[in-house]
Structure prediction request, 311 residues.
Amino acid sequence: MAWAEEKTAPESRKGETGYIEYWPGELPIVLSAPHGGRLIPKELPNRTTGRLQRDAFTAELAMEMRDALQRRYGVAPHLVICHLARVKLDANREIKEAAQGSAVAEKAWHEYHGFLHEAEGAVMKRFPRGLYLDVHGHSHEKQQVELGYLLGKDEIQWPPQKLNLPEVAARSSIRLLDQNSDEDFAALLKGPASLGGLLEQRGVPCIPAPGAHVDPGDLYFNGGYNTETHGSLDGVGLDAIQLEVPRKFRNEKTDREALARALADALEPYFQKHFKMTLPVTSPNAQPQAPVPGAATSSATSGLNQKLPSR
Ligand SMILES: [Zn+2]
Prediction:
């Protein structure tokens, strides 16, 4: 089933290849899903090196996040989706590894990053600051959302006095946000008002978050090409966070919608506190969301009995 063909919203547009879709928005928020595509057109050769697996249901999840934000705030965020399967294009890599020599894949790559630049430009024209969230799916055992700030799994566990050394924030994807927030970098990363903290309060286990720790042998995605190049590591533009979502929050529509609502709700205090911006709450339905059902269950074990094939 070609989900992309059936669910194309009228307010979106595509690049010339037809493989990259952009929904312009009005919030200071940009979403993207580089690895959720399902299309495997014959005109593109298969990629042969690097990761090739799709992040299942992340295009759907990003759409549901957009819908949840629109319901919550009355206006939508920007959204860019790559409909090509990862075996044809990896839109979260530099162009050489991404397209592996295919001219069509290279063109799609330019469309993807061009739309992200356009979205970023549209945000910066209207707002002093903004946030870019790159949506992925991981298959690690622990059913927690891994928030990537370009810091390694050892670094996110550093004590506050070490995390708060200026050079640490300076090599993160939220470098500008650190300068803007009244909270120190350690709190911005894993305090109660960090994105991980705010999501956990809404029933979504995260790392980094207050009290969350990495066990020996745990895998953790700390952010990729998109987070690096479209975030504020370079000192300008949007801040960026990579969202690596576990199967528990992406395989079923109700779970995806619960996560999307929790995110939409968490971003209001997040923007208020750190960006010092009030997101426009204009929707009559704009109410704080109820916590995700089952929030109190163990984040490390729930969902593991689904025995789904590895993605
Ligand atoms: Zn991915």
User: Anything to note?
Assistant: The pocket of zinc ion is lined by residues 35, 55, 92, 136 (CB under 6 Å). The longest strand covers residues 131-137. Residues 36 and 59 are 5 Å apart (CA to CA). The two ends are 18 Å apart (CA to CA).
